[in-house]
Design a protein that fits this description.
Order of helices and strands: EHEEEEHEEE
Number of helices: 2
Largest sheet: 4 strands, mixed
CATH topology of the domain at 84-148: 2,3-Dihydroxybiphenyl 1,2-Dioxygenase, domain 1
Shape: globular
Mean pLDDT: 87
Oligomer: single chain
Helix content: 10-25%
CATH class of the domain at 84-148: Alpha Beta
Length: 189
């Protein structure tokens, strides 16, 4: 089984990279660690943690998302509800709340979800963002909890990956056939 280290990057889209940089780097304090680009696009990466980044493609014809509140059900084609960025403590939540409010962005009150405290906001592209801080002594990663009143049969199988539901790999790619092809990021080297 693959060992995951986090989200290398979550890629979203913007029409205005400068406004996106001002929000994510200058207001929220994320480092802008890489920038790729060509005549028809830009692709910039912001560092969240040692293992995680958030990235944006800038495309001239992309439109802002229609504003949709976090967790409110939708109909029709849809990709994701919101992104939640972890912060170290409630002190960080209050700092972010004050910064967002001072900068004129809507920001929610601090909400107690039982295992995390959160605030909610939107970036300049109307991307819904949650900022979450852990509650001391309660780590659902170490002590998973299923409190769904009507879980599916598959969810009842447990928290760990279940074998036997997908075909087993019978043909492993030989070492001599493991070619890695150059991509856009080669310009960073």
């Amino acid at each position: 089984m693959a060992k995951y280290t986090g989200i290398n990057h979550l890629a979203m889209a913007t029409r205005d990279m400068d406004t996106t940089i001002r929000f994510w780097r200058d207001l929220l304090g994320l480092r802008l660690v890489a920038g790729l680009g060509g005549p028809k696009y830009r692709h910039y990466f912001f560092e969240l943690s040692e293992h995680d980044m958030i990235a944006f493609f800038e495309w001239p014809d992309v439109e802002k998302m229609r504003e949709k509140d976090h967790g409110v059900p939708v109909r029709g084609p849809f990709v994701f509800d919101h992104v939640s960025l972890g912060v170290e403590s409630d002190k960080d939540l209050w700092e972010l709340k004050d910064k967002l409010d001072t900068a004129g962005f809507w920001v929610s009150e601090v909400i107690d979800h039982g295992f995390i405290h959160s605030i909610y906001a939107f970036d300049p592209n109307n991307i819904p963002i949650e900022f979450s801080s852990p509650i001391s002594g309660l780590d659902i990663r170490k002590s998973p909890r299923m409190k769904d009143q009507n879980p599916t049969a598959i969810a009842k199988e447990g928290v760990d990956p279940q074998a036997g539901h997908w075909p087993e790999v019978k043909k492993v790619t030989p070492l001599e056939d493991r070619t890695i092809y150059p991509g856009e990021g080669m310009v960073l080297i």
